[in-house]
Specification:
The chain has 782 residues and is mostly helical. Among the domains are: 168 residues, no CATH class; 176 residues, Up-down Bundle (Methane Monooxygenase Hydroxylase, Chain G, domain 1), CATH 1.20.58. Helices cover 71% and strands 0% of the residues. The chain has 28 helices and no strands. Helix 14 runs antiparallel to helix 17. The longest helix is centred in the N-terminal third of the chain and has 62 residues. This is RAD50-interacting protein 1. Keywords: Coiled coil. Pfam families: RINT1_TIP1 (PF04437).
């Protein structure tokens, strides 16, 4: 829009005119163009006036337009306010009236009917689509199975989509579409299967040579069936039998039903191990090469670059045949298991046979059931998922009854001296049989797949038996201690027969039974703990315990809680039996010491050690052992002979070293430190010591070293008063010289002992020994 600028002041205008004229009229010649200049000025003035008039007109028009627009807005505002007031009035009237509710009620039924009609229309359209897809699928069979899969896939997708809608459980349409889909799939498989069955009938299957080859028509039919089943195989979470193999195995399934699922004698449950399982394996073995040679390339090509290419249940024709045959075998097995529940001895036998069948299928045909990582769980796992408790209780009852029978057998408490060669531990018959029973129980469950089931056998049968036998051995020791102590006999009472059984070697035999039995169980458990099965079981238990996955054990006892990661499965039990063996050995040492004390009683009380005689000229070889020593040596020989037969070399040496230590204490305190000795008495005592050492060495080579301190004491005690002429210049030591040096000081005493090569005696002991000589107590001047 043009605007009229304010006029400049007159002085400013004159100055501008003056400047303009000076610019145009700079010379006299410029006056000649004055008329043209005036005309130009008039023209410019006229143009400026025209522009000014146009600007005035535009300004007026704009003012009128603004006024008109403002008036229109005011009118609209007034209309809106009137309309709002009218609406408010109507709302108030409507709120106070029942007319809308009545109108809604009148329209509700027509609307529902309209929805029902619309829903029916959609139903009909959907049903038409279902029938159309079904027809499109069947029209392509059997010529083009891949083309038939497209409409079938659409129909399957439709069924899955309908089933996923909220409230689909109550809709008949959903069930109808699913039924049509399943029926179509069955029809498609039947059409294709019938084609293969016709080919098989033409070829006389299975009366064909297992070494022959399939012809092209046969192979083509197999490929078509694989093509039509491919989507199901790829998308199914479970293993599905291959259709072509199913068709070919149909005759074998019919034969199986004829023999084993009918009223034939071979259908009896007791024939499972002798007829049914061998027949099943023979069929697989007979056709193994035929299936692999003819179908392996076909299946490898079909499943190449698919998610199931590595699954042997599809890629290996023999595994596919096993999958097809297992369906009817599973039916038979579950039927027999259900019948065997009422006959637990047969159930135990049947489970063992079934485990053997599973292992044979796994090992001979490399069948993994579609699970390459964990392997095939087997028919046994399926049966035990239902009947494990019945089978377990039967096995536990039998095992515990057998355990009680072993313990109550007449020869259970007898030592089996023929079990091992000399120098090896001899267990009781009961210990050997208990170990055999435990080993048999292990064979019952070592091939089970469930960790829970294996732990149940271990903890509630094997460990219960081990605990029971441990308590039996513990009770034997406690009973022995009770009968051999005065307090125990007073509190519990003891019969004459029980005391008679402990006379002579009876006490040693009783203790050797506990030692041998405990040692046998310890060795057996140690050996088992190193076996692959128990090592793997321990690792599984450690893993389940460490991960906190209680579902694997399902409430079973966790036997890893008290053992470290480097432990073994029987550590606690081995420790308990080892403790029992150690306790029995300690009691055996005490028993030997008590027996020695009784046997040596007369010898320790012998007063003839002060007999006077010419000991310097006496030949020691002419001496005989003391009469009171005959009985102790005889008893010692008997104990040596018996323990050598019953104990292992290590236990034998361990026990006798302990017993001989106590014997040395007995002779030291009961003879050497109790009596006085003349030279002849000392020589006789030393001769007795040599006889005792000879007996020990004959039965326990190197065992006399346990009496080394006593032997050295005898050497010191038997020193002569005077040296013979032939020894006077040989550096010998007399009793007087030794006594003088021993009582001088400890250094002199140690030098004396070193000179005499007596390394076990101390200076104090040497002085005590020398004081036992009568000559030293008579204050004889040396």
């Amino acid at each position: 829009m043009a605007t009229i600028e304010p006029q400049p002041p007159e002085s400013a205008l004159d100055a501008r005119v003056e400047d303009y004229l000076e610019d145009k009229l700079q010379s006299a010649a410029d006056l000649d163009a004055l008329d043209a200049l005036l005309d130009t000025v008039d023209l410019q003035r006229t143009q400026l006036e025209a522009q000014l008039d146009a600007a005035v007109r535009e300004l007026d028009l704009a003012r009128r337009t603004t006024d008109d627009r403002h008036g229109l807005i005011q009118e609209r505002i007034a209309e809106f306010r009137a309309l709002q007031a009218d609406i408010d009035e109507r709302v108030r009237a409507t709120a106070a009236s029942d007319a809308p509710a009545e109108a809604i009620a009148r329209l509700q039924w027509p609307m529902q009917k309209r929805k029902a009609v619309e829903l029916a229309r959609k139903y009909l359209v959907l049903l038409q689509d279902v029938e159309r897809l079904r027809g499109e699928a069947t029209v392509h069979l059997p010529g083009s199975p891949k083309a038939a899969l497209e409409p079938y896939a659409q129909l399957k997708e439709l069924a899955l989509k309908l089933r996923g809608l909220p409230g689909s459980e109550e809709l008949h349409l959903v069930s109808h579409v699913e039924a049509v889909t399943e029926k179509l799939w069955a029809e498609m498989k039947k059409i294709m299967s019938d084609e293969l069955e016709a080919v098989l009938k033409k070829r006389g299957w299975p009366r064909v040579d297992p070494q022959s080859e399939m012809d092209d028509e046969w192979i083509v039919c197999v490929e078509k069936l694989v093509d039509i089943q491919m989507p199901e195989i790829i998308h199914s979470p479970e293993v599905v039998p291959l259709l072509p193999v199913d068709v070919m195995a149909h005759i074998f399934v019919a034969e199986f039903r004829f023999h084993f699922l009918s009223d034939k004698p071979t259908s009896k449950p007791q024939s499972m191990g002798s007829h049914c399982f061998p027949w099943f394996l023979s069929i697989i073995e007979r056709w193994e090469d035929f299936f692999r040679d003819n179908l392996a390339p076909v299946l490898a090509a079909k499943f190449h670059d698919t998610p199931v290419a590595e699954k042997t249940v599809y890629a290996d024709p023999v595994c596919a045949l096993i999958t097809s045959m297992l369906m009817v075998m599973r039916e038979k097995v579950h039927a027999v298991a259900q019948e065997a529940v009422g006959n637990t001895p047969f159930l135990s036998t049947f489970i063992g046979q079934l485990i053997n069948l599973d292992d044979t299928i796994r090992s001979r045909f490399s069948y993994d059931g579609g699970d390459a990582e964990n392997g095939w769980s087997g028919l046994t796992t399926e049966v035990l998922a239902v009947h494990f408790e019945v089978w377990f209780e039967a096995e536990r009852k039998f095992a515990l009854e057998r355990f009680e029978t072993i313990l109550e057998a007449p020869d259970a408490r007898k030592i089996d001296y023929d079990y091992a060669v000399a120098g090896k531990m001899k267990p009781t018959f009961a210990a050997v049989r208990v170990a055999d029973l435990l080993r048999t129980i292990t064979t019952k469950y070592k091939r089970l797949r469930s960790l829970k089931h294996k732990v149940r056998f271990l903890t509630r049968i094997q460990l219960d038996i081990l605990d029971g036998y441990h308590e039996r051995l513990k009770g034997s020791l406690e009973a022995y201690q009770s009968m051999t102590s005065a307090l125990g006999r007073t509190l519990h009472g003891t019969t004459k027969e029980q005391l008679a059984a402990l006379e002579g070697l009876g006490a040693l035999e009783t203790l050797c039974k506990v030692i041998g039995s405990s040692d046998h169980i310890v060795n057996a458990l140690t050996e088992w703990g190193d076996e692959e099965f128990f090592t793997e079981l321990w690792d599984e238990l450690q893993t389940a315990s460490g991960s906190g996955n209680s579902s694997e054990l399902d409430g079973e006892q966790d036997i890893t809680s008290s053992s470290g990661h480097n432990g073994a499965i029987f550590d606690e039990t081995i420790a308990a039996y080892s403790s029992r063996r150690k306790a029995a050995e300690e009691i055996l040492v005490s028993t030997l010491a008590d027996a020695q004390s009784k046997a040596f009683r007369a010898y320790t009380q012998r007063p003839q050690w002060t007999t006077i005689g010419d000991a310097d000229t006496l030949d020691p070889s002419q001496l005989s052992i003391t009469a009171e020593l005959d009985l102790p040596l005889s008893k010692l020989k008997e104990s040596f002979d018996f323990l050598h037969r019953a104990l292992s070399g290590a236990s034998y040496r361990r026990v006798w070293h302990g017993a001989l230590d106590k014997l040395q204490d007995l002779l030291w305190n009961g003879v050497l430190m109790k009596h006085q000795f003349t030279t002849l008495g000392a020589v006789q005592f030393a001769h007795d010591g040599q006889a005792l050492a000879a007996v020990i060495e004959r039965h326990l080579p190197g065992g006399s070293s346990a009496l080394e301190e006593l032997r050295e004491a005898m050497e010191l005690l038997r020193l002569p008063i005077t040296l013979p002429d032939e020894m006077s210049s040989g550096g010998g030591v007399t009793l007087g010289q030794a006594s003088e040096r021993a009582f001088t000081d400890n250094d002199a005493a140690r030098a004396l002992l070193e000179e005499m090569q007596l390394h076990s005696l101390t200076p104090a002991n040497a002085r005590q020994v020398l004081q036992r000589r009568v000559e030293n107590n008579e204050n004889t001047g040396w």
